[in-house]
Amino acid sequence: MDELRLNVSLLRRRVPNLTSAAKSIGLRPATVSNLCTGKIPIGRSEVRTLVALASLAQCSLDELILRGESVEMIETKIKTLDLFAPIAKGGTIGLVARPKMGQLVLLGELFYRLKKEGYSIILLKPEGNHPELNDVFEHVDVVVDSIEKAYEQTIQLGTKNDVIFTADRSHVLTGEIYELQERFQNVNVQSVTTFLLDLKGEVVDEDLPYGPLETLWHFDADLTARHRFPAVNPIYSTSSVLEGAHLDQNHLFIQQRAQKLLRRYRELRSLVNVKGTNSIPTAEIETFNRGERLEAYLTQPFYVAEPYTGIKGVSVELKDTLDDVRKILDGAVDSEDLKTLNYIGSL
């Protein structure tokens, strides 16, 4: 059977305000979001949902559903991202976070790493004064202040290199980003991967705040409060790269096992916070301990943060991340001191 995925770029072009449009015909925005990122596979979705989306986009089901087209992953060598919500090359990535949850540090780190891989980094500066972006600018090739300049620079740099383009949600609300992405469809450039963030933090309280996405990163308040960085939620963050045959099946199997463990671990932590460690059922102590170790392992020192943390940044190949996570899931580090797993690279 052909591999199926939603034509997210078509939805972006045809239905800019997808949240309101989906609600108006009885679709849950969360369902639409999960279809776009692949959290709900096309094969498991209801036919009426797909028909309704095709109606909104004024297209046929054949146009809405792509067959046999794989989504290429950009490997960042950041453990949490590569394992749970890989970057879809050429897609749109949305960051859902409140201020001070680490999204700008993560963006700066990504820019630092991807520049070394030959990507050109372009950032569209939001209106107003945003001193919090100063550290990010350091790792950007070009900062522009208008959509037109963003287009010109992307054309200029994109003829030779893959491009990472970043914009604030304010440009999404005006519809300018969708128009820009549509223009990119008609020119001969390398891939353009778009990152969207919200400096105000309003996206946390909204459904589909950026419209359809290929990759979604939810930042987690609990991880932030406990200084577990990058504070990307491993349960709610997802990517279309994870759909079926687009991903190595070993990766998918380990990713699903890890999510299952962390989901239960989080439930047990809530219990412990209220009633103490003695409240954990004896049969679940092993689950809690392995969840603790996996969460600790997923922390990672960043190169851009070295001056502040005093810890040398590290990169971890995806194959090493998968091997390490499998070992943790299978109990190979059950006897390890939890502290030795915090902010390391590979085991």
TrEMBL record:
<comment type="similarity">
    <text>Belongs to the ATPase alpha/beta chains family.</text>
</comment>
<keyword id="KW-0066">ATP synthesis</keyword>
<dbReference type="GO" id="GO:0005524">
    <property type="term" value="F:ATP binding"/>
</dbReference>
<keyword id="KW-0139">CF(1)</keyword>
<protein>
    <recommendedName>
        <fullName>F-type H+-transporting ATPase subunit beta</fullName>
    </recommendedName>
</protein>
<dbReference type="InterPro" id="IPR027417">
    <property type="entry name" value="P-loop_NTPase"/>
</dbReference>
<keyword id="KW-1278">Translocase</keyword>
<keyword id="KW-0472">Membrane</keyword>
<dbReference type="InterPro" id="IPR020003">
    <property type="entry name" value="ATPase_a/bsu_AS"/>
</dbReference>
<keyword id="KW-0067">ATP-binding</keyword>
<dbReference type="GO" id="GO:0045259">
    <property type="term" value="C:proton-transporting ATP synthase complex"/>
</dbReference>
<keyword id="KW-0547">Nucleotide-binding</keyword>
<keyword id="KW-0406">Ion transport</keyword>
<dbReference type="InterPro" id="IPR024034">
    <property type="entry name" value="ATPase_F1/V1_b/a_C"/>
</dbReference>
<dbReference type="InterPro" id="IPR050053">
    <property type="entry name" value="ATPase_alpha/beta_chains"/>
</dbReference>
<keyword id="KW-0813">Transport</keyword>
<dbReference type="GO" id="GO:0046933">
    <property type="term" value="F:proton-transporting ATP synthase activity, rotational mechanism"/>
</dbReference>
